[in-house]
Amino acid sequence: MRKHLITILSLFIFPFLLIAFSYPKTPIYKDPSYSIDRRVQDLLQRMTAEEKVGQLSTLLGWEMYNKTNNDIQISQKFKEAVKTQHIGMLWATLRADPWTKKTLETGLMPIEAAKATNALQKFMVDSTRLGIPLLLSEECPHGHMAIGTTVFPTAIGQASTWNPILIQQMAQTIAKEARATGSHVGYGPILDLSRDPRWSRLEETYGEDQVLNGKMGVAMVKGFQGNDLTSGYNIISTLKHFTAYGIPEGGHNGGSVTIGRRELEQAYLLPFHQAVKAGALSVMTAYNSIDGVPCSANPWLLKNVLRDNWGFKGFVVSDLGSISGLVGSHHVAATPAEAAAQAINAGLDADLSGYGYGPALLQALQEGLVTEKVLDVAVSKVLYQKFALGLFENPYVKVSKVKSSVRTDEHITLARNVARESIILLKNSNQTLPLRKNLNSIAVIGPNANNIYNQLGDYTAPQSEENIVTVLEGITNKVGTSTKVNYIKGCDIRDTTNTNIEEAVEAARKADVAVVVLGGSSARDFKTSYQETGAAQVTAAQDALSDMESGEGFDRSTLDLLGKQLALLKAIQKTGTPVVLVTIKGRPLNLNWAQHNVAAIIDAWYPGQEGGNAIADVLFGDYNPAGRLTVSVPKSVGQLPMYYNYKNPAKHDYVEIDSKPLYNFGYGLSYTTFAYTDLQLKTIEKDNDFETQVVFRLKNVGKYDGDEVAQLYVRDEVSSVVSPITQLKDFQRIHLKAGEEKEISFLLTADDLKLLNPQMKWVTEKGAFKIMVGSSSDNIKLTTDLATTQDYYL
User: Fold this and answer.
1) Which CATH code for domain 674-793?
2) How far apart (Å, rounded) are the C-alpha atoms in residues 679 and 694?
3) Which of 318, 408, 448, 490 could form a disulfide with 568 if both were Cys (CB 3.0 to 4.6 A apart)?
4) What's the rounded Cα separation, in Å, for the pair 792 and 794?
5) Do residues 507 and 443 touch, judged by C-beta distance below 8 A?
6) Number of helices and strands (H, E) in the chain?
7) What are the Fibronectin type III-like domain coordinates in residue numbering (predicted)?
């Protein structure tokens, strides 16, 4: 009987024992030995609909911690968000600025930031059902937008270096600083072509040209992402803004865009395509609509182009509030649920706001507007990147490594190098520059001569004053005590009620040279009110007038120097003292009077924390400037839009002025001179491609060592569709010692000369092309002809 009982029991117990021993103790999604795809699918099947929707919500992160007496704790708001919304992502957790109301006192220093993100992750891992770590996104366009980080020049300055290798090094540094404090995604680069300087965000772009933008974008993506996202030094790159955001009608930020598909694909999409090919893992949709379809609900853009044609494997995120904007701004959806359905069905995976999806997406699911399959696809894109980053194995950062990773001496030196390479010499009559270091006295004048935030640009966190070097400090450091440096502000950027022009004139009159630092400001302040999107709420008549005239939301109707700045410059010039104008700004400004009357002009854009040292290096000849413009600078807003690669036919003059810009795309001077000679083409034809080497010699024939930016342009002489009058195809920044000569080579293939023909097919057509090499778009030194003998379909 006992034997029979054991036999019966074994029949029941053994299968359960077999199941217990064969079933993995660790869930598949937590086991790194499985593929990421397998782990994603395992996790998805364990999740409720509410948990899936929560993974797509990116809430405002700076509300999720409390800081008291240097003690960092998670906030009750964070706990509630996790409990009720099952959130999976946060944005701008470490951001500090007047919009977030985080200051140097209430925000987080780098070590505190690491402690905060660790605390948030610990709660997610230990106190939620599935233990899914957070994906933390941060603004990283010219440095991690957090307190105590390294602040580099804004993007328009980065592009002015014409040096993608340097920009990739910068991006690596930004990624290292962001990841060290617990961030995983960096918003940037911005790849919008900017062809209207009235638009408030030109400073965030690389300028007006698709080839230059593409090369800079690729450099940023490679620098951010590296080759191993689990390295602890790399972050995911989010491309902004998809697409054509930089040409809004009237310069109104976020306004509608009128553009044909051919121009969209040949110009505006090209930088994004290049960055996607380089491996970018995230894309942000733009606020605007194109041909009546909002970018955040555009299946042609997000599915056909981005995924089907380009093979994009990452996730798409909305810009802040752009899903709800389908209801409130574009009026293409009647309810939040309809807006959520339009967005996710179009291929928009994640919501930056927390209110675009959330309950609205759950309602859309319940109403049958969205299928669970569509939801799963979006969630899987986000989860995949969490696994790829190694967050399930290593959700925390090492606080002990923060100090050696953020704002190091090496990073500060790099910031100075990027700033120096970005500086553009616009004018230098009678060799006014470089200045002698043994001058008796220098007058440093102007609202941007000693204002740390006016030289940092938008999307910059508060920084300790000792971390920023102004122009006044840079000049003082350079000349030492032997030269008297007298600083007078003179006026504000905008406010006309507080001026001391007479005192500035007196200082200039007594000086050997006057360095006048004017321009604009994107410095956010607590006088300004902000929209939910973070853009400034601008009105024509504001009671509290800030210096800010550029930066998100500050669109302009003119490009004139505001306030009393031009009056100050004219008064200084009238003294007879040699004047050097330095402009620090975020957009091209009207420099017509200065160009005709001032001896020397330097354009520094927003040069970042080392701007003062970099500008002083250029002023006194310790660095030979070689920055080049990446936007055309108009003489009048009546010429807008103005960009060098406009389509045929050629422009004609106006009644009042000619049609030429004040400064052309690619323009910039040097303290030395370069000679171009011996242009040759060497072509090898293949079955459906060709390779043409464009070879020439470049010699420094001046007395200073320096860099030259050699630029290759092409014109399609006859084409089946109207083509640009000229188009940049490649460039190199080359250092040559005085008297040194080098052979320079560019490579052209069929892909470089392609167009979309009338049948919307990509083809390089049989025919003649003009090959042009020079130092700017309007200073061509060498030309020759290239003839293709067949059509090349691509």
Assistant:
1) 2.60.40.10
2) 7
3) 490
4) 6
5) yes
6) 21, 28
7) 708-777
Helix/strand/coil percentages in the chain, nearest 5: 35, 20, 45
- Run of H or E including 91: strand 89-91
What are the residues whose beta carbons fall under 8 Å from the beta carbon of 186, sequence distance 6 or more?
137, 138, 139, 140, 144, 174, 175, 178, 224, 235, 236, 237, 238
Q: What are phi and psi of 333, to 5 degrees?
A: -130, 145
Q: Count Cα neighbours of 641 within 13 Å in the Cβ-side half-sphere.
A: 18
Helical packing angle, 611-619 and 409-422, nearest 10°:
50
Estimate to the nearest angstrom the gap between the alpha carbon of 144 and the chain centroid.
12
Lowest model confidence (mean pLDDT) among 1-10, 100-109, 347-356, 411-420: 1-10
How many whole angstroms separate alpha carbon 247 and alpha carbon 446? Answer: 32
Helix H or strand E segment including 773:
strand 767-776
pLDDT at 686: 85
pLDDT tens digits along 16-66: 444 444 445 899 999 999 999 999 999 999 999 999 999 999 999 999 999
| Three-state secondary structure readout of 578-630 | CEEEEEECCCCCCCHHHHHHCCEEEECCCCCCCHHHHHHHHHCCCCCCCCCCC
SS (H, E, C) 201-245: CHHHCCCCCHHHHHHHHHHHHHHHHCCCHHHCCCCEEEEEEECCC
Nearest to 682 by CA among 786, 527, 529, 534: 786
Record the tokens describing residue 566, joined without a space: 């031009």
Domain positions in the chain are 422-631, 674-793
pLDDT per residue over 310-342, tens digit each?
999 999 999 999 999 999 999 999 999 999 999
Give the whole-angstrom CA distance, residue 561 versus residue 559.
7
- Tell me if residue 319 is catalytic: yes
Q: How far apart are CA 786 and CA 490, in angstroms?
A: 55
CA angle 586, 592, 595 (to 5 degrees): 95
The sheet carrying 484-488 orders its strands as 424-428, 600-603, 579-584, 513-519, 441-445, 484-488
Element (DSSP H or E) covering residue 384? helix 372-388
The one catalytic residue among 97, 319, 458, 707: 319
Q: Please count the other Cβ atoms lying within 10 Å of the Cβ belonging to residue 87.
A: 26
Residue 60: φ, ψ to 5°: -70, 115
**For residue 394, what are the contacts with CB-CB under 8 A and spacing of at least 6?**
230, 232
422-631 belongs to CATH 2.40.110.10: no
